[in-house]
Description:
alpha+beta; Chitinase A, domain 3; 22% strand; Alpha-Beta Plaits; 44% helix
Amino acid sequence: MQVSIETTSGLQRVMTIGVPAAEVEGKVTAELKRISKGQRVNGFRKGKPLPPAVAKRMFGKQARYEAIYQQMQQSFFKAVQDENVKLAGMPTFEPTVDEDGKDLEFKATFEVYPEITLADFGGIEVEQKTATVTDADLETMLDTLRKQNAQWEESAEAAADGDQVVIDFEGFIDGEAFEGGAAKGYSLTLGSNSMIPGFETGLVGAKAGEEKTLDVAFPEDYHKEELKGKPAQFKVTVTAVKKPQLPELNEEFFKGFGVETADEAEFKVEIRKNMDRELDRAVRNLTKQQVIAGLVATNEVEAPSSLVDQEIDRLRKQAVQQFGGGQQLDPNMLPAELFKDQAEKRVVIGLLMNAVIEANELTPSAEKVAQLIEEVAATYQDPEEVRNYYNSNPQQKSQVEALALEEQAVEKVLAGAKISQAEATYEEVIRAANQPA
């Protein structure tokens, strides 16, 4: 088998492969026997093999087509292995010489992974947050948990921030009602910022039965193009005002969070443990985000288009699942351009993290894997059951190992990066970690 490789542009390569005619003809003959076997042909006894000349006349083209395709695949992947090619994505094949009795020649067009030489980690700056869970943070969390489990009771009092109002409303632009600007029996929590600026504040102080006219404006970045920046007027009728009735801190309330105790102090200990774990994860995530951003900023990497296309397909499917499209919506209907930038970013990050792993010959640390499993187990009532689940399920454990390897790569970069410390509050760290990367 003769092989030559040509660089056409960037990461694209064209491999020209020649295969001896005898090898090709052997595959064609075998494929012809497979296709013609068991075929019923008028004038020939059922179950008897067709004469070669008849089989070739009837099925020769199909047999050659399938045999040639198989030959191209087998020859290509053998050449990839022999030539130590780092293949990214699947190739396309084009036969250039395909005639009976002649050596087969074909071209395979494909992309390779980029060769990455990592820049010195000293050019990466990371500001690590230091924070602790204070008693005030704990009390705020308890207050939040109570509000999340509040019961709403109708009230004759004026609506205040944090209250819920039930409203009928209709919106107008230049005196004309617009599509999607009306609703009846809509429940709105004041201060939730779920409506456009000015809408919720305009209802503070309203009582059940009141009618209000709100003059507001849609934000310049509003998601509907036709409404961006437009001034609008909403006519609102408040049908009910509801005040939150916070639950007592008692055994029943504690049980709802998986804590079997009647002692408030014990419940607080468990909540603080959860907050400590959440804070630790948030600090690590913020550090990881900065490490990744530093790697991207200090290393120029070309993303193979085939890998970007694969990532676009994954993002399309995620989008369909997120919005409940299921099998009723074809992911390919979503424009690729919507996901291209995000897909390219993900591919580049994956290539850089893999380069760190390969350059440092990292393998998943058993200690790190155990630590990550323990973090998950600690959030359940029966930690041992969770440990056993991961340790007896190879597929689930492999996912943890991949995460462990990623964290080890981050630690390796940190060891050479410029690190500074910055004090922060629990709330600041959690909020920052939840911001889109």
